[in-house]
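S1.2 Input.
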Amino acid sequence: MYDKVNYKEWCKMDSDEALQIKAVLDDTAKFGEVSKAAFDSADTNGSGGISKDEMTLIMNEIAAGMGVKPPTEKEIADKLTLLGIHLDPSGDIDLDGFRIFVRYLLEQISK
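S1.3 Output.
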């Protein structure tokens, strides 16, 4: 149902779209679909996890969409730690961890 996610566009929501985001956040099934689509879009190498490079790319796209300076690697690592997202043994973020990130991101965008 949800195709490739454009993270830059996620940051340019109007008030109607913000309401739609809130509806997705409140609907477990819809959130599962959206977060899985986001994960699949971010997992550019098909490894089944989001690598540091893939996460950096996402954060750079989000920053560009918001018109702000991209975060440093340390800022990204600090945000993941703050959100309680742990890396798997290969150093990647798994789907469950990425869902935490997507929920946080959507909550911030919909404010």
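S1.4 Remarks. The CA atoms of residues 43 and 50 lie 5 Å apart.
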